[in-house]
Specification:
With 388 residues, this protein is an alpha/beta fold. The chain folds into 2 domains: 108 residues, no CATH class; 229 residues, Vaccinia Virus protein VP39 (Rossmann fold, 3-Layer(aba) Sandwich). 34% of the residues lie in helices and 28% in strands. The strands form 2 sheets. It has a 7-stranded antiparallel beta sheet, with helices on one face. The chain is elongated, with a radius of gyration of 24 Å. It starts with a helix and ends in a 5-residue tail after the last helix.
């Protein structure tokens, strides 16, 4: 009799554990009695006592970690697969296997993994890329095709992802991030998750990345992709808004193209959490313009609506950068990506490390605000900074 899909899966797992080829195992769709349990993640670790297998039991409000030797790990997993957990996803150095079980049935899909190297893009054959075009998550998100080439309609998006990964890589080396634990990263208003997946790819097992998005359909889509590409043990998505999401423990906070004062909400949450790194790309800066009083020397130029709009955007983002400096961050405003690809191309980065509450910085902020007649601004309000 042909072995069931479950028995075949357990056989593959046993070979991976005993043969040293296991990368990770994810168990999901719990069928046990504990309603708070979501997933179990298993990966090999090397401790002072020797090789072990780290079990992370993920509950709604907490994670429980335990280490087991190979024999004990297999004994526990063989009992759990197909009973306490109905889905299982195995990753080894050479293949992936996904098991789905239910009453009287089990379905197994096994896929051989190709080479991790990606086909070169254009003439840039020697460039060391932080994000490989052949990454499975890029294909799942529709950015690249099966040959690892950017889909024509997504070429700009691929360049944006590459640029983001390049910038984030530099910032990670600069920020005072903890080294004794996994990092906690939040991507606020993540949309379809392009840059959320990029952050998780770049940080790997070093971080738990959470994408926050208000639209339920996008959250469900991103969760499914994370499972398909094996990121579910380090990448999660939750439905919510920037305003209603608690990020008290954030080490890195990202908010790209959060509209108008949502950027300020995200920055304020990052500052309140003491995040070591803040990365935002503001969008639709509307708050300042109704208050805007054109300085006399600029009045003729700013009577043109388009100049006034762009100047108001400059004033908004310059004020944000100054407020972050007052809050204890070293800030930079840079071009995220060429205006050839998007007009929303300003990125503000902030690395914690300055002294907070600098009186000289505060005086300059108030002078700047007075010059343009600005009496209120959302980030200033969140930080408790009086502009007048």
């Amino acid at each position: 009799m042909k072995p069931s899909g479950r028995d075949q899966f357990v056989g593959l797992l046993r070979e991976a554990v005993l043969g040293g080829s296991l990368v990770k195992l994810t168990l999901g769709k719990p069928g046990g009695k504990d309603p708070t349990l979501g997933n179990l993640f298993v990966r090999p670790v090397v401790l002072k006592t020797g090789p072990q297998f780290a079990f992370v039991w993920r509950h709604v409000t907490r994670d429980i970690s335990k280490n087991h030797g190979a024999a004990e790990a297999l004994r526990l997993l063989e009992h759990l697969i197909g009973s306490d957990f109905l889905d299982a996803h195995l990753f080894t150095t050479t293949q992936s296997a996904q098991l789905q079980t239910g009453p009287g049935r089990s379905r197994l899909r096994v896929r051989d993994l190709g080479s991790a190297s990606a086909a070169p893009i254009g003439h840039d054959r020697q460039k060391n890329r932080a994000i490989l075009a052949g990454a499975p998550w890029l294909r799942a998100l529709g950015v690249t095709d099966g040959r690892g080439q950017p889909v024509s309609a997504m070429a700009d998006k691929f360049r944006q992802i590459e640029r983001f990964a390049e910038l984030l890589g530099h910032l990670l080396r600069e920020a005072p991030l903890p080294l004794d634990r996994r990092l906690r990263v939040f991507d606020m208003g993540c949309g379809k998750g392009y840059l959320t997946f990029a952050a998780s790819e770049l940080l790997g097992e070093r971080a738990d990345v959470c994408g926050v998005e208000a639209r339920a359909d996008l959250v469900d889509f991103c969760r499914q992709v994370a499972i398909e590409v094996g990121f579910e043990d380090r990448l999660s998505f939750r439905q919510g808004t920037i305003a209603d999401t608690p990020v008290d423990s954030a080490d890195i906070l990202i908010a790209l193209h959060a509209c108008d004062t949502a950027t300020d909400d995200a920055l304020a949450k990052g500052v309140a959490a003491g995040a070591a790194l803040l990365v935002v790309a503001p969008c639709c800066q509307k708050e300042i313009r109704p208050q805007f009083v054109s300085p006399l020397v600029l009045s003729d130029a700013l009577r043109h609506g388009i100049f006034e709009e762009r100047h108001a955007e400059f004033v908004t983002d310059a004020l944000r950068a100054q407020l972050l400096e007052w809050a204890g961050y070293r800030t930079r405003a840079i071009e995220f990506i060429s205006t050839e690809h998007t007009a929303k191309n300003v990125m503000i980065t902030a690395v914690r490390g300055r002294s907070q509450g600098d009186h000289a910085v505060a005086d300059r902020i108030r002078e700047f605000a007075a010059f343009y007649g600005i009496r209120r601004q959302t980030l200033a309000s969140h930080l408790g900074f009086a502009l007048q």
